[in-house]
């Protein structure tokens, strides 16, 4: 049986909830500060900062994201309302991130090495915690380059995501999985430490 090939990381893709309920597409609009000048791509992890606004989550081995960025709506430099798949980080105002912020959400994500080149994990990764890589987003597609780091599987409580399943559809051998299903390990809404 031929399996589909995953050629590059694509960020975190919401697929369902960890309690088995289907993901219904629920999102929340959270403002982006007008002075924030970092691009955010669909599939990037994001966090709420002290100003109550969204920024790209840049942690790799620690931290508490609030969810996954799915797109944005803003007013561009021509004073036009613009819905988009990624936040360009410049020349926009009144920007609102569209975020999957459900602490029970499960996400499909690619496994890469430290250079963001496709790699894999074994079935034994299920139940472990893993580091994440921010990767480089693509301004043409608007997609994230985020992934989980191959070989980072550990019991360390502070690691960013918990592996809850493997993806059989894209495995490259009996115990070689290039995609995993994960949840945010220390979700910002359930972490007792505030911003």
Would you mind describing this structure in some detail?
The protein is an all-beta fold and 195 residues long. The chain folds into two domains: 28-100, no CATH class; 104-184, no CATH class. It has strands at residues 13-17, 28-32, 45-48, 54-56, 67-75, 81-84, 93-100, 105-112, 129-130, 132-133, 147-149, 161-166, 179-184. The strands form two sheets. Strands 1, 8, 9, 10, 11, 12 and 13 form a seven-stranded mixed sheet that branches. Strands 2, 3, 4, 5, 6 and 7 form a six-stranded antiparallel sheet that branches. The termini are far apart. The model has no long low-confidence stretch (mean pLDDT 94).
Short description:
By secondary structure, this protein is mostly beta strands.
Throw out a few tags for this protein.
0% helix, 6-stranded antiparallel β-sheet, 195 residues, 33% strand, single chain, 7-stranded mixed β-sheet, globular, 2 domains, mainly beta
The beta-strand count equals 13
The total count of helices amounts to 0
What is the makeup of the main sheet?
Answer: 7 strands, mixed
Helix content: under 10%
Distance from N terminus to C terminus (CA atoms, Å) equals 48 Å
Order of SSEs, N→C? EEEEEEEEEEEEE
Give Rg in angstroms: 16 Å
By helix and strand content, what is the structural category? mainly beta
Mean pLDDT: 94
Number of domains: 2
